[in-house]
Design a protein that fits this description.
By secondary structure, the chain is an alpha/beta fold. It has two helices and eleven strands. The protein is 15% helix and 49% strand. This is DUF3060 domain-containing protein.
Length: 184
């Protein structure tokens, strides 16, 4: 097969592979369905984990319980006020605004900026998480970097670390703003 024929086919295959699996799910207890903020995401019924019709309007912070992001190269921004968030992403970028509950980050090589979290839990490798206000921070895995501006209570958040080469450090407001603008 000639290289001129093989190269375009390989490029199309790679592009389709990169787009497969990107999703953001919002579980809505009022309707028992999930809405998607990503055009390629599947919508799942929260009770049966089967496909269900897409609701006519997206969920708002007041009527949802949890945000769930999953996939590769996910780039999203969301208001997580009063909600827990699970981000099972690789090579992604998230901005989470509002007063969030527990933020769980699973995956690798992602940048996450959080305005406020009761708790941050990271179980992955090479993630960079910047949080303005944190209650507690738990880091597992390797080479994760977590920066925080202020603690929810006291001088610093409760920090639990496992794994190798993880760093947790306090930074100034300017560093938080720089991280937020670089993820957008």
């Amino acid at each position: 097969m000639r290289l001129s024929t093989l190269l375009p086919a390989a490029t199309v295959t790679l592009a389709l592979t990169a787009l497969t699996g990107c999703s953001v799910d919002v579980n809505t207890p009022a309707t028992g369905t999930a809405t998607s903020q990503s055009p390629t995401a599947g919508v799942k019924d929260a009770d049966t984990d089967t496909d269900s019709p897409t609701p006519s309007s997206p969920a708002t912070p007041s009527d949802t319980k949890q945000l769930r992001f999953s996939g590769t190269n996910v780039k999203e921004s969301a208001d997580c006020t009063g909600r827990d968030v699970t981000a099972d992403i690789d090579a992604g970028a998230l901005i989470l605004e509002g007063q969030c509950g527990t933020i769980t980050i699973i995956g690798a090589s992602s940048a996450v900026v959080v305005e406020f979290a009761e708790a941050i839990k990271i179980d992955g490798d090479a993630n960079e998480v910047t949080v303005r206000t944190a209650g507690s921070i738990t880091v597992k895995g390797m080479t994760n970097f977590v920066s925080w501006v202020r603690a929810a209570d006291g001088d610093q958040p409760e920090v639990v670390g496992e794994g190798d080469y993880n760093q947790v450090a306090q930074v100034g407001e300017a560093q938080y703003e720089k991280a937020a603008s670089s993820v957008k």
